[in-house]
Amino acid sequence: MAATAPPARRFLLVEVAGPWPRQAIIGSWPERSRLDRRAAARLVGLTGPHGVRLLAIRRYGDSGRGPDRAWGVADATPDRQAIRWGRWREAADLLDVAAAWAEGRLTDGEPAAAGETLALVCTHGGHDPCCAIRGRPVAAALSASSPASSSATSSASSSAMSFGTGGVDVWECSHISGDRFAGNLLLLPEGLLFGGLDGPGAQLAVERHAAGRLLLDHYRGRFGQPRPAQAAEYHARLALGDDALGAVRVLSSVPAGPVDADGSRAWRAVVEHRGRRHAVDLVQRWSEPARMTCTSGPDRVDRYELVRLSPLD
Fold first, then answer.
1. Pairing relation of β-strands 10-15 and 82-88?
2. How many beta carbons lie within 10 A of that of residue 59, not counting itself?
3. Domain assignment of residue 74, given as a range
4. Which of 10, 97, 138, 159 counts the most CB atoms within 10 A of its CB?
């Protein structure tokens, strides 16, 4: 599952009452989402084309039908990592937030508490049943162990803005990619993605993150980083035996040759590990066709395999 995080670095989170259909925002009933078809389509148009990942969110066990609903924005760009929260009632309010965030500016809302981690668990069964079957136990376990999230009331947006613990703020979310890796967990603002988790595994991932470490066995990669770079980071960490968050930095990743007849391709990356540089040689290969998720037909996926790790310094 390594090197499978999507390319987005910015996120717009919109509280929408469940259950969610396959298209969680644009397909939801207006009485649940408070967005008619035109407003929902406008919201999608203000996010996707501008590189913003639009996600529906809800509290575990909370219908989210109070007068106020939450919106959140998160930036996983290195050196700009941040989360802000606000409230919305009318579609026009939400569209104003989306328009500002599409341009990379936003002054509305309130910043998350210092040191707080936003934990998003995909439970989007309308997209693929695997996400609900495997994701909801993860959301339940994390919510139960998070005082901020377990104390949420029906006015979830209010509690989202009043957390001051600097702890973990847990929400269910719509599709974040890789249904075959459910349960999937995204930690913001860093954009760290984990998969194949059950409840205890998710709690361990969060505990290790709080200690400045990664759960490498379930680490899918970092949102916004090219896939060859994600693979280089992952394989370098394994080879060097280092799971500390800031220990490995990818300096470059480029193709090392043309695409072969079988679709494989060589890549070379350069990483920095605790002040020393290493070359990471990889080969990208395609799998045989196989059923990937609960509802998909046969498909092929690519993987990045380590060829060698060579010190440069």
1. unpaired
2. 23
3. 10-217
4. 138
Question: C-alpha distances in angstroms, 274 versus 214, 222, 233, 247?
Answer: 16, 19, 13, 6
- Tell me the chain's radius of gyration from C-alpha atoms: 20
In angstroms, rounded to a whole number, what is the distance separating the alpha carbons of residues 8 and 57?
A: 17
Cα separation, 185 vs 248, in Å, equals: 21
Is the bond preceding 189 in cis, omega lying within 30 degrees of 0? yes
Note whether residue 3 is domain-resident.
no
- Residues 229-281: pLDDT tens digits? 999 999 999 999 999 999 999 999 999 999 998 889 999 999 999 999 999 99
CATH label of the domain that carries residue 75: 3.40.30.10
Q: Two tokens at 287?
A: 């799998």
Q: pTM for this structure?
A: 0.92
Report the candidate in 277, 288, 186 with the shortest Cα–Cα distance to residue 232. 277
Residues 307 and 158 in one domain: no
